[in-house]
User: Fold this.
Amino acid sequence: MVIAMVGVRPAAGQGRTGRWPEPGRGRLVARSRSRNRTAGAVRGVSGRDMTERGSQAVNRLLSVLLCWTENEPTLTLTEVAQRTGLTLSTAHRMVKALQRSKFLVQDQATGRYSLGPTIMSLARVVLQRGDQDELVVAAMPHLERMRAGTGETVGLHVAMGQSRVCLAELVSREPIRAATGVGRVFNLPAGASGRVLVAWSAERLQLVLDGGSDRTVRMNKPKLVRSAEAIRKAGYAITVGETIPGASAIAFPLFGPHGEVNACINVTGPGTRWTRQRMMDALPFLVDEVHQIDEQLGFQRA
Assistant:
């Protein structure tokens, strides 16, 4: 029946608007035109354009993930859209994609989203790398003694690109205390630990001087260079309130077997208690503990 109908010609005067259209031909023409339009569209998109579109999608996903902070561990979809500048529909699509891979989870009762188990798995990869495991094992007994000797919080920090991360921390037992938090990331050169890691690495110092992760440093290049030189000469760095308001810290470099510095120890406490004078009083004891860690890591002083 269908085949016979396709072959029927319209009666005189009916033309293509008559009772019997040419369905077969009409459909074929429409498909041909559609294919031509699609082909033209594909030909109009270069490989570079496709790459840029792919990069845009990745950047959007990353911007969504970066919405969550310590102060805001849960967010609504609307809050995600507001923080990223994405439309609600685009933010919803991104959030659902991340949820499927368990980068995000949703509380069914409140509808709010938080970071999921995939993030924790990736964090463990960073915090439990083989070389870092050895570093923590070597440093931990000394961290214990440094906490006992000062009464303040003692932390082990490692450099990661233009940032540093707290790898291990023994928190002060005092009721009023300062703490960084294991896994917390800071931009270089912020804090005593950041300044130490920059001072003993020409590469990291140059990254910071070029703008790095802290744009304010661009206005203080001469000061930063002088600071790095003074820190290397003293053998430690002291800062007050740079990363934790009201806290003061002293940090020391840890030297690897070839003299490289990729980690450091810091002692942090409330500025009203952990004063510069107390730091100086504890300095010989702290330096001795740090040097013992250096020796365990294979560094030999001349």
About this structure: The CA atoms of residues 256 and 299 lie 6 Å apart. Confidence is low (pLDDT under 50) at residues 1-45. The beta strands are 104-106, 113-115, 153-160, 163-170, 185-187, 237-240, 247-255, 261-270.
